[in-house]
Design brief:
- The structure holds 2 protein chains of 2 kinds.
- Chain A is mostly helical.
- The two termini of chain A are 34 Å apart.
- Chain A is built from 13 helices and 2 strands.
- In chain B, strand 17 (328-335) and strand 18 (340-346) form a beta hairpin.
- In chain B, helix 2 crosses helix 3 (112-125) and helix 2 (97-107) packs parallel to helix 4.
- Classes of the chains: A mainly alpha, B alpha+beta.
Chain lengths: 301, 376
Amino acid sequence: MAEQDWKTNRRVFAAVSLPTFLWVLLFFIVPMAIVWLYSFGENRGLTEIAISGTLDNYKRATEWLYLSIFGKSFAVAALVTLICLIVGFPVAMAITFASEKWRPWLLLGIMLPFWTNLLIRTYALMMLLGTQGFANKGLGVLWEGASWMRTLVGLQPLATWEPVELLFNNFAVVFGLVYVHLPFMVLPLYAALDRLDRSLIEASLDLGAGHFRTIMRIVVPLAAPGIIAGVMITLIPALGAYLTPDLMGGTDSQMIANVIERQFKKANDWPFGAALSFLLIYAMFILIAMQSLRRRAPEVQ
Amino acid sequence: MTQPAKPIIQIQNVSKRFGKVTAVDNVSLDINAGEFFVLLGPSGCGKTTLLRMIAGFELPSEGQILIDGQNMAGIPPNKRPVNMVFQSYAVFPHMSVADNVAYGLKIAGVKGGEVRDRVAEALELVKLGGFEGRMPDQMSGGQRQRVALARSLVMRPKVLLLDEPLSALDAKLRAQMQFELSELQEKVGITFVTVTHDQDEALSMACRIAVINKGDVAQLATPSDLYEYPANRFVADFVGSVNIFEGKLTLDEPDKAAVDCPGLGKVYLNHGVTGPHGADVWVALRPEKIYLHVPGAGKAVRAAAEDAPDGHNFARGTIRGMSYLGDITLFEIELESGARIRVSRPNLSRHDQEDFTWDDKVSMHWRADSPVVLLG
């Protein structure tokens, strides 16, 4: 089939794209515009908001307290992305080099979590990590075993097992976010590695390079577009994560999305929540802009 | 090439199976140091698998491969004294030409100054001097292949393996590269082992050719022996164009033999074939070894009688097809038996192609040393 320019079939193009266009307009552009307008408004009574064009909300949002939460959210999201990359890269390599027979099953294994609601997955993870959870119970059994072994060789038994606090702290938030976002990292990495010409890897081996050097000097640089894509689509949702820090975090592990939620609900300060939301959106814009600038760079050469 | 033949690669009873498919079936071959060796065969015959086993990318299911006397079992590709030029060239797209060529040297721990000298020398060798700073995506396919060649040659391997090196080039460039590869091989003195499905490529470049069919060596010979003395029907048919007729061996003595072919007629050879008397055999006759004559004057009969008994080595027919190729004209002729035979005729002067045309009656003869009797 010949490639067709949409310009030659304007009406067909318009008819096909109209529903999508309306959808985006009604359910994305319009609500975003309302929130954007709210961010320049102030509360007048319990439900009434006057859009007065004030910048007070943004001024308040850049106070140290909120900036530090922004900073912390960035740090958590960056750490989650890094762990996802370190864990996800070998996984993506393993899927790429698995035999034809196994590959679809391994990919299914990566995508399977998507079929379950995030809330249910988070609760399942909490059952695993709680003080009475499977992780602690397993560790407890090992501890008892070690204690028993010591008595066998005539040593003092160990102190009674104290469950480790695995939940309701920053560790739990990072763990939960890594668990949720790993597929977002693995899939673009897999797509990039699968496209890689295998003979490049063989050529590197043929020229005397070991496997590690081949990965670092050939596979990683050539998979760079996939790595960047994986980093972006892991970093951005992790930055706006709400459910995981809310359910699995402690009092000190709130992220920016939790603060925003509080403004819209408990604090009933929509204009301030709107301003915080838009600061987050601008930050993501900058990230995406940086990525597309980097993509364009080689052409300039 | 009069060096004493010393095998640099010994392939001993090597088989390779992928699941139930046998790609290479009990192959034994010696490849001599300094020769240009070609593995020739149709696609899927196992020739590339054989090459990849030498490089170490596939492991033999059975048998062993020795390089320079050393058993390669358990030695990974990055530790073997061979280098490979891949069919897709596999030039690293994110590195400059110089970095590509220097890649293996740096890994081998060669120092900076020497790396630069050897890279320049290797690029000069493949006529890419001055291209050091180029990126692969700024180069043509032919140039990328030269980078791949330089990248392998700079390692000074004992053996250079080439997987279908010319298949991605256009016809003109391919013909030029055939000469250049042969020239390069003589200059550097490294053993070249090339895989190809293109018989012209094999005949023009090789010292020796192994024709591979269904995972087995069908014949191992020099290019001219392969063409003039094919060992079986597969080789006769695969290498060059040929007419094959079934027949019965009626005479077989040390200095002469005769085959009675129902399709072609009586064929006489001026040498023995050492086949069982009365056996079913095949006669192969190359199109360019058949002479065409205008019928009636008895020229064909007289010419055939010069080196064969009466009634042998000539035939009559009608031209059913013609294709003019410039240097030669190809004829397809229907013999009196109904069988078809292909004859090529050089156009030695400008109007030669006007001598014969469709539906002309013709007679033809061939010399007694031209036919080849095939037992299998």
